[in-house]
Amino acid sequence: MKKYQVIIIGGGAAGLMAAVQSAEVGADTLILEKMKQPGRKLRITGKGRCNVTNVTSLSDFVEHFGANGKFLRQVFTRFFTEDLMAFLHNMGVPTIVERGGRVFPASGDAQDVVDGLVRQAIDHGADLQTGMTVNRLLVEGKRVIGVEVQESSVPKQNTKTEHHPGLKRYYADSVIIATGGASYPATGSTGDGYRLAESVRHTIIPIRPALVPLETAGDVAPRLQGLSLRNVTASVWVNGKKQAEAMGELLFTHFGLSGPIILSLSKYAVDALCMNRKVAFSIDLKPALDYTKLDGRLLRDLDEHGKQYFRTLLKSLLPRKLIPVCIDYTGIPPDKRGHQITVGERKQLRTWLKDIRLDITGYRPFEEAIITAGGVDTREIEPRTLASRLVKGLYFAGEVLDIQADTGGYNLQAAFSTGWVAGRQCGSVSK
Asked: Residues 201-239, buried b or exposed e (16+ Cβ, 10 A)?
């Protein structure tokens, strides 16, 4: 069996970038992808448009990763936003910057990014084999020497080796685990990397869905299914204490809450639920108005339209779907005239508009999560090179690591940057 200098497990964003860099510096490189085609998850990111990065500052970028952001600082100093945009441009994929600093391919098509990465890897001489599931790492002493692979019967793409289905071994000087997380398992992200890392005694921080919709108690969400609210504020409360808040867009679903600000705040809810803590979300429909200013507006509306029924007055305050929910939860009769509404009822309305409280009972599964929280403990990884501190010749890149951020291009940049560093390091060391 042929020996390679670098074997990369996983043909996603991190794996393909690692392959390009490893092959570019002259290392004989093999990419092993379990699916029929590489980059399947990358194709669906950003709703198929591929939000590759964000043009915010390095310090702000790192903050979006929370406590583990500091681990990525050295990686980002070597390959960051401008480097990625230049890299994509040079391979024929120009980018554009949109609202919030989000960067997308100018074509608006994630497939262009996948095709470009695959083309670059192959053009630089990398060997891409698909339908290859890595069963285990081959280790001698404390050094990785290769992998054992179960090959499926699917035809291979761009391969320089003969096609013989079955159990195989491939040997190499270095191995990069870039298998992704456990979210969207239909794309091939089924947690293989955690199993492989754990087999050589790496610590796995418990994985859980991240950037994931949340399930709520009661009938509010089902009644409002399909309603999208913009420019509202949502805050997450754990055991009665406010943890975080975000302003933007949310969506009511048949099971609970989704949308950008819910996904961003979901990490607080998921972690708290895993610790059996009580979690609730508060929705402020009028974040631009404090209680005093909102009360003043309500007084004006009731004064100017005092003869109108309460249900009619609400049309200027709320989307149509919210009106019956408001009536039920405030207890104000729908046929009550505006001038008849009492001070106490006005206070009840004001409070509800500023604090629609929903208890969180759970979160959706990995199949509906954008990314995975948890993963290989970064304390066991050398941050400058992404080499394992436990096994020589073993490296990690991408979502398999315990690094996760908000939406906005941060997670893909981390995948590309860690792939770039690991590939470059392995390619240089193995030559």
From this structure: ebebbebbbbbbbbbbeeebbeebeebebeebbbbbbbe
pLDDT of 405-420, one tens digit each? 999 999 999 999 999 9
Residues 399 and 272 in one domain: no
**Residue 427, CA distances (Å) to 18, 27, 124 in order:** 9, 5, 12
Task: Find the length of the chain.
Answer: 431
Hey, which bits of 296-402 come out as E strands?
356-363, 371-376, 394-396
Three-class DSSP category at 295: helix
Q: What is the DSSP letter of 101?
A: G
Residues 113 and 166 in one domain: yes
Range of the domain at 305: 213-363
Is residue 113 within 8 Å of 119, Cβ to Cβ?
no
Q: DSSP character for 185?
A: G
pLDDT of residue 166: 79
Last residue of a domain, one of 315, 337, 363: 363
**CB of 53 closer than 8 Å to CB of 81:** yes
Q: For residues 351 and 329, give the distance between their C-alpha atoms in angstroms, rounded to a whole number.
A: 11
Q: Is 348 in the same domain as 376?
A: no
Task: Assess whether 128 and 182 both reside in one domain.
Answer: yes
DSSP bridge pairs for 177: 9, 396
Return d(Cα 394, Cα 169) in angstroms, integer: 16
Question: Mean pLDDT over all residues of the chain?
Answer: 94
**Domain match, 192 and 114 both:** yes
pLDDT at position 155: 47
**Residues 177, 192 contacting (CB under 8 angstroms):** no
362-401 pLDDT, tens digit per residue, is 999 999 999 999 999 999 999 999 999 999 999 999 999 9
Do residues 245 and 324 touch, judged by C-beta distance below 8 A? no
Are 229 and 297 found together in one domain? Answer: yes
d(CA 410, CA 7): 26
- Rounded Cα–Cα distance for residues 214 and 344 (Å): 33
Q: What is the pLDDT of residue 74?
A: 96
Q: Give 163 or 18, the one with higher predicted confidence.
A: 18
Residue 164: pLDDT band with limits 50, 70, 90? low
Name the DSSP letter for residue 2.
Answer: P
Q: 244 and 129 in one domain?
A: no
d(CA 152, CA 166): 7
Q: How far apart are the C-alpha atoms of 203 and 205, rounded to whole Å? A: 6
What pairing do the DSSP bridges indicate for beta strands 371-376 and 204-210?
antiparallel
CA dist 387 and 174 (Å) reads 10
